Amino acid sequence: AQSIGVCYGRNGNNLPSEQQVVNLYKANSIGRMRVYDPIPATLQALRGSNIEIILDVPNPTLRSIASDASVASAWIQTNVRDYSLDVKFRYISVGNEVDPNTENSQYVDFVLPAMQNIYNAIVAAGLQNQIKVSTATYTGLLQDSFPPSSASFRENTRNFITPIVEFLARNNLPMLVNVYPYFSFSGNDLPYALFTAPGVVVTDPDGNRGYQNLFDALVDAHYAALEKANGPNVQIVVSESGWPSAGHDAATTDNAQTYYRNLISHVTGGAGTPRRPGRNIETYLFAMFDENQKGGDESEKHFGLFSPDQQAKCVPAPLEIVQAIVAITPRCNGDDGLVVGRGKSCGDERDGGGRDSLTSSAVSCNQNAGAQSLGVCLGGYGDNIPPVNETVNLYHSNNIGKMRIYDPDPTATLQALRGSNIELMLGVANENLQSLASSAAATEWVQRNVRDYLPDVKIRYIAVGNEVQPSDERLQFVLPAMQNIYNAISSAGLQKEIKVSTVIDLRFLGDYDRPSQAAFSEAAMPSIEPIITFLVNIKSPLLANVYPYFTYIYNTETIQLPYALFTAPGVVVPDGELGYQNLFDALLDALYNAVEKVGGQSLEIVVAESGWPSDRGTYATVDNASTYYRNLINHVPRGTPKKSGQAIETYLFAMYDENLKPGDETERHFGLFYPNKQPKYQITFG
């Protein structure tokens, strides 16, 4: 998990002491650091910190280490072995951005021999399984990188870089690459550089891969070059990436916030790149501090996440994603797990809990990372489900901060939720809709199921009805019941705290080929249009159950499984300027388009259910379910192509398998946990 680190640059005369720096990393739960030279004070401060580090061999040291293996051994003894019991070394970077075409050309002949001598010294110390040896390169070595698949190393660099790549490949070592969209973008493609382009910008005919951001294109250009240099299996670690906050027209705090927010969300989201999909990208943000003595352009001095006084420059809320939403390690493979976020967005006073991430000292920005955008539905169709107090404890122990229940049970669920701080979506059962069309009954319902539990239970939404179809005569009562519940909530002065809505599903839509063409069906229009108007007027979201699983199993001839599981390597469905790489986004944006066509342009959609069954169906397997949940959880902070960057509040269905659930047998196997409270997919929250 922990795929994010921060580089510790020292080109400043006003920086904190080494111990203060290590304390700042620890205070902000930053678990990885890149260090550019082996300063004893830094290594000493790192003892016992549990921070993993990249330790550089500085370029001026390369000649001596390349020339004499005993110098390399002494370097390892002094800077690694003397600290190795207390300091966690992850990589040694032998040189940084050595290039035959720059002032660093003087070091070209020494990089590979120095790498070999350092590697041999590491092997002699028995540390080769713990510490990986590499060098840090950069985009300047590439040519013909548009489209990414055409990239290769520049002709006059190949004699230098190809033997290095072959050395890495032979020894199963990664290539460290400094990747800076800031330096690569042209003036008219800023959204492409900042991860904010609404759709695919570059289509690579090799594999029909679609690129929606420049970072992926640069990383994949390096992968293409590595493949052509006999390194098809060499993995890339992004050893630097950042955006300056001053010193250039595009170097602004807003742009830096946007870049860091979206970079972190992307590299920890498990999507990978189009050429290497389905994985986290280990990435080191550059840099911890502004550096007032850094050479080069003025912007070089302003890459810091923190000012030298240790105050965070409006660090973007999505750094919370590094620790937040959830870490999933499916039992069906050896994946290390993917970190997704649980935390608190800037300015959102509803979200409670501690601030676990780098944003702990920087809450002044108005960025919505969608932290804590996940909940889990608690279904009750089972005769072996744990008591609700044990279930609430299970939510707590897994840091699940939101719950959906389908019908209030005052003697059990609501009582167990008192003081839990779990935010609740409270359902009104379909069979109660007709009675709540009476205002008196609605007032009594709100008193009994809402007001009697405040302020001890945090009720976020009231869902008036669930998937009541146009063919169901109870649909006529949904809007009157919503209006009466809302009026009762307003009379209690709770309308800003508790939002009233209803839950629909995709059967409300008519036929469409692309999301932009979607509209509500003729049968649904008479009921759904006034509901949308009401929600717009009271500023409440529409709740929707979104299941790619069901759409896929009924359309297997036209939809591919990777599109449903978020594992398609590129755009599958182009739609004007937007491109859809997964079915979940396409379904949700279809709903958004339908809502807009009936006057709901300002309406937000909350996904009230989404899940994948693990048994009793051809595609209902543990592997597929674990893949879906992993990728869904990692995806929702990023939004859809139509609502890019807007986190999707989503409730996973469901907490438990339900052995009495009616319908198809697969309906009984949507649980994240078995009824004995054991995790089905080894899911660990927070």
From TrEMBL:
<dbReference type="Pfam" id="PF00332">
    <property type="entry name" value="Glyco_hydro_17"/>
</dbReference>
<dbReference type="InterPro" id="IPR000490">
    <property type="entry name" value="Glyco_hydro_17"/>
</dbReference>
<keyword id="KW-0326">Glycosidase</keyword>
<dbReference type="GO" id="GO:0004553">
    <property type="term" value="F:hydrolase activity, hydrolyzing O-glycosyl compounds"/>
</dbReference>
<dbReference type="InterPro" id="IPR044965">
    <property type="entry name" value="Glyco_hydro_17_plant"/>
</dbReference>
<protein>
    <recommendedName>
        <fullName>Glucan endo-1,3-beta-D-glucosidase</fullName>
    </recommendedName>
</protein>
<comment type="similarity">
    <text>Belongs to the glycosyl hydrolase 17 family.</text>
</comment>
<dbReference type="GO" id="GO:0005975">
    <property type="term" value="P:carbohydrate metabolic process"/>
</dbReference>
<keyword id="KW-0378">Hydrolase</keyword>
<dbReference type="InterPro" id="IPR017853">
    <property type="entry name" value="GH"/>
</dbReference>
